[in-house]
Amino acid sequence: MKRLLITGAAGNLGKILREGLKGYADILRLSDISDMGEAGPNEEVVKCDLSDRAAVIDLVKDCDGIVHLGGISIEAAFDDLLQANFLGTYNVYEAARQNGVKRIMFASSNHAIGFHKRTELLDDKAELRPDSLYGVTKCYGEALASYYYDKFDVETVSVRIGSCFPEPKDRRMLATWMSPRDFISLIKAIFDAAMTGHTVMYGVSPNKSVWWNNDHAAFIGWQPQDSSEAFRADIEAKFPEEDRHDPAVIYQGGGFAARGHFED
């Protein structure tokens, strides 16, 4: 790959990929509205507001693939999400269509299905049950990705990311955790695959506690290596046993599902 664009490059996931994808593409084009520092070797740093369609169309020029992480990654007011997540995601897809980019990794979220109970094992056919306005924006992004594949042959892997940090931060993350190493290998697998169509899969390491099933996406060839089990003893010693009657424990979305409407 000659040039790979990463939107949201100043965020946690963007930083992981900026380091982990060095040498994967000839050039990493990094974009965000926040400071990303100076461009390193084989990098291009482009500040861009994703709600500005003309700017996004320019941003995507000469790119062979897009890792779309940009936007608001937490619950927020609808008007803010409207600009960053609804309009911004549309602009990325429209820019891809106009510039002939044929594959995108869309950073969806487990919060698109957060009102499923933890006792359910979900695959790509699970009903969308967003636990927040933020989760609604990810349902929209998955639908948009499906539309752009069916109508324009722009392939997407929509990854419902769990919790990607160096190690799990609480008991819930024993099930949702994805290691940075596994995330990097997932991105490589997505862009190395012969074809992807529009595939929805879960961004999670092979942990002992399992809520999500990626068997349907085996053709992509991702083989994650890490597990949260190595951290279980420390996490269980640090955090008290969960109350099984707590909505944050009943539902996969955790605290997002338990909270009230953001704008109340």
TrEMBL record:
One Pfam assignment: Epimerase
SUPFAM superfamilies per the UniProt record, alphabetical: NAD(P)-binding Rossmann-fold domains
Domain annotation NAD-dependent epimerase/dehydratase: ranges: 5-174
GO molecular function: oxidoreductase activity
InterPro entries xref list: Epimerase_deHydtase (IPR001509), NAD(P)-bd_dom_sf (IPR036291)
Cited PANTHER family: 4-EPIMERASE, PUTATIVE (AFU_ORTHOLOGUE AFUA_7G00360)-RELATED (PTHR43103:SF5), NUCLEOSIDE-DIPHOSPHATE-SUGAR EPIMERASE (PTHR43103)
Protein name: NAD-dependent dehydratase
Organism expressing this protein natively: Thalassospira marina
Taxon lineage: Bacteria, Pseudomonadati, Pseudomonadota, Alphaproteobacteria, Rhodospirillales
